[in-house]
Each structure stands twice: as structure tokens, then as C-alpha cells.
Write a structure and sequence with these properties.
By secondary structure, the protein is an alpha/beta fold. The chain has 15 helices and 13 strands. The strands form two sheets. A seven-stranded parallel sheet has the order 3-2-1-4-5-6-7, with helices on both faces. It has a six-stranded parallel sheet with strand order 10-9-8-11-12-13, sandwiched between helices. The longest helix has 18 residues, at about 75-90. The radius of gyration is 21 Å and the shape is elongated. The protein starts with a strand and ends with a helix.
Length: about 350
């Protein structure tokens, strides 16, 4: 009997690709064949996908980048991608197509709609992205990573949580070491968009901490390539032990060892923090569509696991005050870590996989 085929359509950012990877890992274990449909930009995030997951790079584009000519060409590039998706879906018809958002998911979802292949989408954020908003009325299920999620009229969502990669699940509920003495590990992650403000504010905030705290800091700071050198130099000049990289391939391990996480509130980051269970300071990306990063943060903030600082109020002094309050109150920090676990959805991938298999049936 031929193994059933799942096509996962995703791309653009790690926020789309990480939950897609989590589903791919689980469906392969359940005996499915899995193909990832993405574009060249999304392909940058495929390094962690299982080797048995086939990757189809097809043409797509977004209106959000490029000049006038590039934007004029967007419909043509998307149409080319849809045609390519139709061709390979006819050769090897999928049982189910799941979209995770981003413009690279348009070709596969469009082809699935034309061919009447069972299809669903997963929305990571508390507000539907543009592409998921377009397809929401045209799919069997809208699986929601953040609940409640703002949905179009007439569309019903299924709360499932945000799937996390197996590397994150391996650290689920790892014991937390309160900041009572010894090294103070701080993880700074900004996601793939809008991280520059963290590079501007976080180093200065940490440098202003009292000397007894500052001397114990070990910082892992994710910074854009163009910011990395100046951030590393700042830490070095202020004698703060720090690793500065554009991307950490071992985020789950670093998060496990952290006493505090300073982060944007992208859906994947919020999910990782809740699964592993760590105190955090969240700075929502102010330009996020529909202010969805603020919506993403609500669960951790309401549970008492996170301190939220709006971008408009983010200053070195404001951040330093919150960081110091966590690092000087070990019991409160431990309570924050436990509170993070209370809003976790470690079974999100399993729930999503059950929906996929239900559609196939």
C-alpha cells in the first residue's frame, strides 16, 4: 500500500517554518510521506527538517518587499508557482495539504483548491496573517496556535496550540535554576524581523545593572549580521561575557540553561518559552500585522510568566529595571518559570496531526 502524502506549504520566516517542521517530524513518524513546498527564502530554514522530507522550491513573491517593478511581477511569479504546484500534484496527488502562512504557501494551497484536495491551515498568531486570511473560508479547518484568534466572520477555528520541534520537546519542563548565585545566563532572541531595537537597547540595559549582577552575566544574543559586530564590541568593552550570532542552532539548549529570556513575542518564541518554562521579558514587534505579537504574549503575561514592555516604552532604564527585578528575586523567578509551563501546549503537534489524518480519512 502506498504511503499517504502530506504537502506542507510554508515559508518566509522561522515563525512559519518551525511549526511546519514539527508537523513534518511527527507525520513521518506516523508513516506518511511529507513534502515541503516553499520558496528560496523559506528554504533557508529547512536545515532542521528531517532528511526524508522532500523539499519543493517553487516561485512565489510578496508585495511587502522590492520596488515598483518587483511588485508588478508578484502576480506573475505566484501564477508560475501555482502552475508548477498543479503539475507535480497531478503526478503525485497528495492526501492532504496544510498551509502555515506566508506568501510561499499560496501556490500549493491554490493548487489544492483547484484539484479539490483536502486542505487546512495553521495560524500561529492571535491575528490571521494575510495569506491565511485569504484561504480561511476555503479550507476544512483553521487550526489556531494562539487562542483566542481573531477570525473572519463565518470561520470557526480549532484551538490546537503551536507545534514545537522535537529539539524543544526534548527540553520540555527542564528543571529551572533560579538566579540565586553563580552565572546568570540571559538569552536574547529577536526573531527574523525587527530585532534591531533589541541590539540597540539590551546591551546598554545590561551594562547598567549593578556590578555584582553584571559581573555574573553570560549573554547569548541573537543579532542581525549588520548589528553583530557593534553589539559584540559593546559587550566586550563593558566586560560582559557574551556570544553574539545571527542565528543560534541550539536555542532549546540555551533556553534550558537560561535564568531569563528577553525576546520578541513571535508565536514560535512564545511556544518554546512556555514548553521549556522560563521567565521572560517580551517586547512585541510594533509593526506586526494587527499587533499580533501583543496578542501572542497575552497568555504568558496573564499567567505571570512574562513581563511585557511595549516597544514605545522600551528604554535601557526600563528594561534594566525589569531584568534586575527578576535576577534579584529567585523565588519569584522560579514561580514565573512554573507559570510559563501552565500555558504550554506540548501536544499541539499531535493534535494537528490528528486533524490531518482525519481529513485524509
Amino acid at each position: 500500500m502506498t504511503q499517504p502524502l502530506l504537502i506542507i506549504a510554508a515559508g518566509g520566516t522561522g515563525g512559519h517554518m518551525f511549526p511546519a517542521q514539527a508537523l513534518a517530524e511527527l507525520m513521518l513518524r506516523r508513516g506518511w510521506r511529507v513534502t515541503l513546498s516553499t520558496d528560496t527564502r523559506g528554504a533557508r530554514y529547512t536545515g532542521g527538517f528531517p532528511h526524508s522530507c522532500k523539499v519543493e522550491q517553487i516561485a512565489s513573491a510578496t508585495f511587502a518587499r522590492g520596488g515598483l517593478l518587483a511588485r508588478v511581477m508578484v502576480p506573475l511569479r505566484i501564477a508560475t508557482g501555482v502552475a508548477a504546484a498543479l503539475l507535480w500534484m497531478r503526478r503525485d496527488r497528495p492526501n492532504v495539504v496544510v498551509g502555515f502562512g506566508g506568501y510561499p504557501s499560496i501556490p500549493a494551497l491554490s493548487a489544492a483548491w483547484v484539484l479539490r484536495v483536502p486542505r487546512m491551515i495553521h495560524e500561529q498568531n492571535g491575528v490571521l496573517g494575510r495569506v491565511n486570511g485569504l484561504f480561511a473560508p476555503r479550507v476544512a479547518h483553521v487550526a489556531c496556535g494562539t487562542w483566542p484568534t481573531e477570525l473572519p466572520r463565518g470561520v470557526t477555528g480549532v484551538p490546537v496550540g503551536n507545534p514545537v520541534r522535537m529539539a524543544v520537546l526534548a527540553e520540555a519542563g527542564a528543571p529551572y535554576t533560579p538566579p540565586a548565585g553563580g552565572a546568570l545566563n540571559i538569552l536574547v532572541i529577536g526573531g527574523s524581523q525587527g530585532a534591531r531595537i533589541l541590539s540597540d537597547v539590551v546591551p546598554e540595559a545590561l551594562a547598567s545593572l549593578p556590578p555584582d549582577l553584571r559581573s555574573r552575566l553570560h549573554v547569548a544574543h541573537q543579532a542581525r549580521d549588520e548589528d553583530g559586530m557593534r553589539v559584540a564590541e559593546f559587550y566586550r568593552d563593558h566586560r560582559i561575557a557574551a556570544e553574539v550570532q545571527a542565528f543560534f542552532g541550539d536555542i532549546p539548549t540555551r533556553m534550558r540553561d537560561a535564568q531569563l529570556v528577553i525576546s520578541r513575542s513571535g508565536a514560535s518564541s512564545v511556544a518554546d518559552i512556555s514548553i521549556i518554562g522560563r521567565p521572560c521579558v517580551l517586547i512585541p514587534f510594533a509593526a506586526a500585522t494587527g499587533d499580533h505579537q501583543t496578542a501572542n504574549a497575552r497568555g504568558l503575561v496573564s499567567a505571570g510568566a512574562a513581563i511585557l514592555i511595549p516597544e514605545a516604552r522600551l528604554t535601557p532604564a526600563a528594561l534594566a529595571e525589569q531584568v534586575e527585578s527578576v535576577l534579584t528575586q529567585p523565588e519569584a523567578a522560579a514561580q514565573m518559570a512554573q507559570a510559563a509551563l501552565s500555558v504550554a501546549h506540548p501536544d499541539a503537534a499531535e493534535t494537528l496531526a490528528d486533524l490531518v489524518e482525519g481529513l485524509a480519512a
